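Can't attach files on this board, so I'm pasting raw text. These are the components:
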Amino acid sequence: MTPFYRDNGSLMSDQVSLSELAEKFGTPLYVYNRSAIEFAWQEFSKALAGHPHLICYAVKANSNLAVLDALARLGSGFDIVSEGELQRVLAAGGQPEKIVFSGVGKTTREMEAGLAAGIRCFNVESPSELERLATVAAAHGTKANISLRINPDVDAQTHPYISTGLKENKFGINMAEAMLTYRRAAELDSIEVHGIDCHIGSQLTKLEPYADAVRLLVEMVDKLASEGIQLSHIDVGGGQGIQYSEEESSLNVDAWASCIRDAIGDRKLEILVEPGRYIVGPAGVLLTRIEYLKSNEDRHFAVVDAAMNDLIRPALYSAWQAIESVETLPRESKVYDVVGPICESADFLGKQRTLAIAENDLLCVRSSGAYASVMSSNYNTRPRVAEVMVDGDSVHLVCAREETESLFARESLLP
Ligand code: LLP
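---
Top answer:
Structure tokens for the assembled complex are below.
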């Protein structure tokens, strides 16, 4: 699936020209491709076919209602981390019985919201959370279905900021404590023990960390069964990596699924998976227009109209995302730092990129469907940008550009 391709030198998505989208909706602009999102989701569904499974899209990667809508129509489940994400999923037509609730800091109010909606499972991350959930469920005369998130202490071999399965990370419960916590959970009347889960990190491109983690989880499933605590599902988290640069390759979903299925063997365990980036990352780009070109003794700069507030991954994680011209035009090629207008040296989208460009040209930042618009802010009182979804020859405005007045509408002058 190639959601963005060149036709006569111009970048297109399905039948739509990206230059025309920029003309019509302005820049900066996020552009998503519906079929790419659906295709990536179906890769998981095909790879896991024949084994009971539920794909719970990690809403945090891109929570736009249209994205959730497209996935809900495929029958997707959802992995949420806040009451806000719960409300979005329900507003987009997601089914509560396919929602799992992750996160280390669920509040009482969030637990109540999850219980009231009738979500499928809470992924509990600490003994204290378990006690709180039991109390909240009992107070509402109901039961909470849970899995425990295990921290298996395996190295995901990814960026330290997006690695979550090591004992130095705040996530999950260690193996020894998890056994005790399961025994405690089994005693609590308002708790139903359903599963086990882990999420060891994001942007994983190797299979070994998954194999190691799932092997450890399965060992625990067997140990619990020998004590009479039967689990019915194993949630292996998300983290499937995509290709950002030519030096990397994305995780092979078929190989990943075989590795998980092998580790599970013939145990009667439904597989839950929480992919975010893999489903939406490659399906989105950020379009930005070049305002100025400038040079000093050391460098050439392309100053564009998108900034770190619109796409923070390069500044925050030193993430590399491909940047290219939307139109192939006859220009001199130079090495540029592509920077935004914000007064911070960290305000760059890419450094040392070879580009053949002129002022007013359009650039496209690839792989911007995940952790991009959702992480944007209003720093420098910059309105958040518009988002459109391409679907064949149609284009839908799925998030309107923010109005500047709304940025200070909640504020007030002194009396
Ligand atoms: N499940 C849990 C419990 C998670 O914490 C996450 C992501 C996922 C699933 C989905 O992971 P994915 O399949 O998208 O890798 N902002 C960072 C990534 C943070 C990931 C946080 N957790 C970035 O831009 O790279």
